[in-house]
Amino acid sequence: MTLTMAAVSYRYAGAQVNALRNINLSVEPGRVVGLVGANGSGKSTLCLCAVGLAPNAVGGVMEGSVRIDGLETSKTPIYQLAQHAGILFQEAQTQITSGAPTVWEEICFGPRNLSLPADEVIERTWTAIESLRLTDIVGRDPARLSGGQAQLVALAAVLALGPRYLVLDEPTSQLDPLGTRLVGETLARAARETGVGVLIAEHKTDLLARLCDEVAVINGGTIVTRGTAADVLSDPSLHQWGVAPPADVALRQAVVAAGLTWRGEWP
Amino acid sequence: MVLVVMLGLVAWAGVFRRYLPYLIATSALLVSILLINTFLYPGATDRIFVLGPLAATGTGLVAALQAALRVLAFATSVALFALTTRTDELVDDLERRGLGRRPAFILTTAIGTVPRLAERAREIVEAQRSRGLNTEGGFRARVRGVLPVAAPLVLSALTEVEHRAMALEARAFTAPGRRTILRAYPDSRAQRVLRWGLVLLTIVLLVSAFSGALSSLP
User: Fold this and answer.
1) How many domains does chain A have?
2) Residues of A in contact with B112 (CB under 8 A)
3) What ipTM was estimated for this complex?
4) Is residue B211 in a domain?
5) How far apart are CA A61 and CA A59, in angstroms?
6) CATH classification of the domain holding A51
7) Residue of B nearest to A121 (CA)
8) What is the DSSP string of B151-207?
């Protein structure tokens, strides 16, 4: 049981060139896979393909195969896929439904759609709220949250769906260091304790270094390298792909470049 | 009579102060109804007074008052409903009674969209002002300021539609079956009797009006 992308190429409707080319990637339960790349490299498109929103909802043309726990995404209704793989978009505010009067009701929107028993909806909602420490804002209007709060609420709403895989498109882009650490801890706990597989697209390589089992670099719609987080994030080629290495790697590279001897350890 | 009952209910519900903005919003329509009917009622000859080329007529004044009171009664009933009923509770209860998830969502979102668009418009005005746009002062300056505010407001709303549609799909909105209902609202026997009684009364009045029975009343 995995989320597998095999030889996936994708072109948006009306586009002349492919946004993704020959992507091969898999996310196993309990594992965290990071995805880094410059702006426009194809991270968001890969996330949309990974959960079946592209091409099912977005349109366009996809070649190759994306399977989530054996379900071929191109042949499975999105509501069914949503129970297997949840996605968090880059723009958290557009993920808020704009119909719910409170954060609590925003988070329980997904479980209610699945027609689960009321007790289970309530339990899932509170579990997601507590995991991201949102208890203080459950009564707030979701449309009036700060960017960081909206991002956490949107993530909680995805967690409440109880998917086996999480696909997160820059989930900490609007968060401060504390919020970033909280998201990192929550994802690590979800992977460790509940066996959720996580695919996380991020620019914050410090977070990926702490969180990920594996990291892939995407450039121009193609995965150019992948491997363990330690190996990939210390690759000297990261700069040429528009990716800044983690702070300690950058420091080590600066020390070595200055002709000094590095005595630290990775990470 | 309907208006008197409505105003009584407004006072009883304790929302009179919040009702006033609705009244002010309706006033422009009421004034135009009164003026047009009083001065321009077709075929009326019973002049009350003359104002330049226009003559106010007694028939027109009576028709104007009738129309204005009907509009006021309607506006008051809408205001009373809006001021005493929470949208989410209304939609929850409608869903519990069998309303589908799509119409329920459209109803909730449509009502919630207006204040959110107003909020967005305010943000855009502030952003444009910070870039030197003059949105205050005379009529001309205000008109000139409309386009730089309206264009990004409409365009941003349109570009969000695709994202929001995807977000709904990703949150299983299109799943079949009824959504889980989490709340049940008290519905006493008196409320049920009143509700069905009003429906019955409406039907009786409609049938009477169409059959001509109402016009034969003294």
Assistant:
1) 2
2) 98-99, 101, 143
3) 0.84
4) no
5) 7
6) 3.40.50.300
7) B180
8) HHHHHHHHHHHHHHHHHHHHTTTT-SSPPPP-------HHHHHHHHHHHHHHHHHHH
* A214 burial type by CB count under 10 A (0-12 exposed, 13-18 middle, 19+ buried): buried
Chain-chain contact of A95 with B167 (C-beta, under 8 angstroms) = yes
Question: Which pair of tokens denotes residue A249?
Answer: 């790697």
Residues B121 and B95 in one domain: yes
In this predicted structure, what is the pLDDT of residue A99?
76
Q: The pTM is what? A: 0.79
- Regarding whether A173 and A74 lie in a shared domain, the answer is yes
Same domain, A79 and A96: no
Beta-strand pair B47-51/A32-36: unpaired
* Beta-carbon contacts below 8 Å between A and B: 100
Interface test with A, best of B166, B173, B178 (most A CBs within 10 A): B166
Nearest to B111 by CA among B129, B89, B144, B128: B89
Contact A28, A191 (CB under 8 A): no
The pLDDT tens digits for B73-115 are: 998 888 888 888 888 888 888 888 888 888 888 888 877 777 7
Instruction: For B100, name the nearest residue in chain A, comparing CA atoms only.
Output: A113
- Residue of A183, A168, A35 whose CA lies nearest to A89: A168
